[in-house]
Design a protein that fits this description.
162 residues; 8 strands; single chain; alpha/beta; 4-stranded mixed beta sheet
Length: 162
């Protein structure tokens, strides 16, 4: 709707939506909000949500976004789904995948493909339920030695300076 405020006839041109439509993938130790012990005393990571949480159908999403006929949907798991994306530079990437590995993999794919001045936002940077979303972001940007900003909302933002 915000895009339509700037361009009233906008129907989703050049917007790609990527989702498994099967919910969260398998959390790993980086996604733990705590640990419990099994009967042998082994530490087991505890995640806030299990695989499959937040699943919704592609059909429901299409129906909810029906006003935007030109949106392009990509159904699949990160990072495999990226092979279906067009080549070229990206100006805006919004990451809301909750977990460490898909956050890191998404940055690994898009960061080198960002247009100058392009923006990447992480919706889950300071989420207490999804610490992997933040640590995957931090680990990636530490690796590439690039700064980012964290908003009071808990979102992190990177602006490509290349």
């Amino acid at each position: 709707r915000i895009a339509q405020m700037r361009q009233t006839n906008w129907k989703g041109d050049n917007y790609h939506l990527i989702d498994s439509f099967k919910g969260l993938s398998q959390p790993d130790v980086n996604d733990a909000i705590g640990f419990s012990s099994d009967p042998t005393g082994k530490e087991i990571p505890v995640a806030s949500h299990q695989p499959g949480a937040f699943a919704t159908s592609l059909e429901d999403v299409r129906e909810n976004l029906n006003d935007f006929k030109n949106l392009i949907f990509h159904k699949g798991w990160i990072p495999e789904v990226f092979k279906w994306l067009p080549e070229g530079k990206w100006s805006f990437v919004h990451i809301d995948v909750d977990l460490y590995k898909p956050t890191f993999d998404t940055l690994n794919f898009f960061y080198p493909r960002m247009a100058p001045g392009g923006i990447i936002i992480n919706d889950d940077f300071e989420s207490p339920l999804f610490p992997g979303g933040g640590s995957g972001w931090t680990d990636f940007f530490n690796r590439v030695n690039k700064p980012f900003v964290v908003f009071d909302s808990g979102q992190a933002v990177f602006v490509n300076d290349l």
